[in-house]
Amino acid sequence: MADLETFLALERRVWEALVAGDPAADGAMLEDGFLGVYSDGFAAKADHAGQLAGGPTVARYELGDARLLELAPGVVLLAYRAEFVRVGSQELEAMYVSSVWRRAEDGGPVVWRNVFSQDTAEGGPVPV
């Protein structure tokens, strides 16, 4: 059975790349065929990592209320609530995120890659 903390740690690596403005670290967590579904449309791996070309996009974040669903052997869905502040803003935002992680089958150590992510905004800004 998949471990919730393992996948939260993986997800935090993606968020930390957003905080650091590190497109290489972000891209390293995503499968080549990654698909993101966001309020402004679809995103591929290059789009997701490309958003960091100008530097960090997130100033701080917190993940909570996480749930894990094993979809198939080597495939899990992590769902959670994220609170975050974008760079240059003081406004705390919240959204629900669903991320599908797939175990890489390369014969080496176990490596998980994010293959799909969808964000759903939580009704509007949260007062700080």
UniProtKB/TrEMBL annotation:
Pfam families, per the entry: DUF4440
SUPFAM superfamilies, per the entry: NTF2-like (SSF54427)
Superkingdom of the organism of origin: Bacteria
Record-annotated DUF4440 domain positions: 8-107
Name listed for the protein in its UniProt record: DUF4440 domain-containing protein
